[in-house]
Amino acid sequence: MENNLRQIAFFGKGGIGKSTIASNVAAALADRGLKVMMIGCDPKSDCTRNLRGDVEIPTISEVLRGKVEAQLELDEFIYGKDVKMEEVVYEGYKGVLCAEAGGPEPGVGCAGRGIVVAVELLKRIGVFAEYKPNVVIYDILGDIVCGGFGMNLRKGMADQAIVVTSADYLSIYAANNICKGIARYADRQGTPLGGFIYNVRGAVDDFELVKEFCKQTGARVIGSIPGDMNITENEIYGQTTIERQPDSDIAQRFRDLASRIMENTDRITPVPLKNEELIELAKRIREKARKQVEQKPTNREP
């Protein structure tokens, strides 16, 4: 790959909104004239859907399995099989190149290991050399902490990892586990942490709490995305906010976030919180949630 290629990996727990953020960042960068490739690395295989008008694409794992009779693990048959670029790479909004790693059949193999195998396949068949993207964005599930899903960190697949979190405990717990994985492979040319993105989800909206968590790890919050029903509505139509509502305030938030990510030079080894620190944080989150529930008006009749 070219030395000036930017490779950015978005991590976070399932449902935190990393695919929404990643696809909107990809669309914003494409609007700027950059050649962008987005590689979905979630077994659900829906990371690129909003860049293609709600049209899903065949996954790399499906294509590979279709070339053999036996249901084997990806890395057992990837090499020596003829895979064409047009079978695994499709164009989306403004020419964004879309690929989905997919995963193994349920109960067979490791989806995390399949991510690395899929990326190696894309390199082997010349996708990066042919299309010469300026930016490659990886959308990676981050609440599975098995060794397979840690392979992408250990391999140093991206220049920086961006962790998406909200103010709820499970999101922060997952973010802390991702920091542990990054720290584990830091001295072995693993992927460094570029920073966090605060995405408002769930009952608690507490930016200060998230900033405090990030500060404890040694990283900073690169940007934030507020809760906005327009984002959800746009995704119902299988589009990013950048495409469907380009003049909206939230679209501008995504553009600003894309610029900050591209300008970000932070590459750190985080310091994950200890268990007792996480427990204390959980208590504060629950207390905050209780107060918000108590302050809500009820519709009960007297």
Distance linking N and C termini? 68 Å
Number of helices: 13
User: Which descriptor suits the 3D outline?
Assistant: globular
Mean pLDDT score: 86
Strand content: 5-15%
Uncertain segments are 70-77
Whole-number count of domains? 1
Total strands: 8
Model description:
There is one protein chain. The N and C termini lie far apart (68 Å). The longest helix is centred in the last third of the chain and has 21 residues, at 275-295. The protein has helices at residues 18-31, 60-65, 74-77, 85-88, 111-124, 127-131, 147-154, 169-184, 207-217, 229-236, 241-244, 249-263, 275-295; strands spanning 6-12, 36-41, 90-91, 97-100, 135-141, 160-165, 193-199, 221-225. The chain is α/β, with parallel strands linked by helices. Strands 3-4-2-5-1-6-7-8 form an 8-stranded mixed β-sheet, sandwiched between helices. It has a single domain (6-293), classed as Rossmann fold (3-Layer(aba) Sandwich). It is globular. α1 (18-31) packs across α12 (249-263).
